[in-house]
Sequence to fold (190 residues):
Amino acid sequence: MNRATEQVNSTLLEDISAVATHRDQVALGRLFDHYVPKIRSFCLSAQPGSTLMADDIAQEVIIRIWNKASTFNPNAASLNTWVFTIARNVRIDYLRKHGRHTSNIDPELLWNDVVDESIDLFRDAQQARDKTRIHAGLSYLPADQKQVLEKVYLEGKTHVEAATELGLPLGTIKSRVRLALHKLTIYIKR
Fold:
């Protein structure tokens, strides 16, 4: 961690303490300036164009920080983790309350136990959803196509290695892979 980051973290810890002990509005303003853009960015990356949702969630997070600052325990979690756990809960509540902002991404998939701001949580959630759909799609493929896909993509074998291992011509392997991928793509897009 560089010196500038350490200084910011130290200032933020002082600010949360000032909010908790003295109800310091200036300190809350600094927390607002630091966290609201990050919370809004997360919300907008998850649901592009939903600026109203992002603003509502950010506002509610700041209100909860104001009301719950005294519950922050730096020995239990970092301030970032604490704030983004609040943001996670607010976002889930918001999505449940306002069904019109639905997504086929489960909000629970968007958060890990430890929040790392460098991780693209929405991308990770999409990948988890896609992995589930791919495994479900594999069950609908004919056994010969599924077997070839498993060899090539899950076991990491080359087409030549799969052909040798299965005792099939290379052209048959390539055809089965092409057909299986086409069927899998159609299944996943439904």
Q: What stands out?
A: The chain has a mean pLDDT of 81. The two ends are 45 Å apart (CA to CA). Helices lie at 3-22, 25-46, 51-68, 79-97, 121-138, 143-154, 159-166, 170-189.
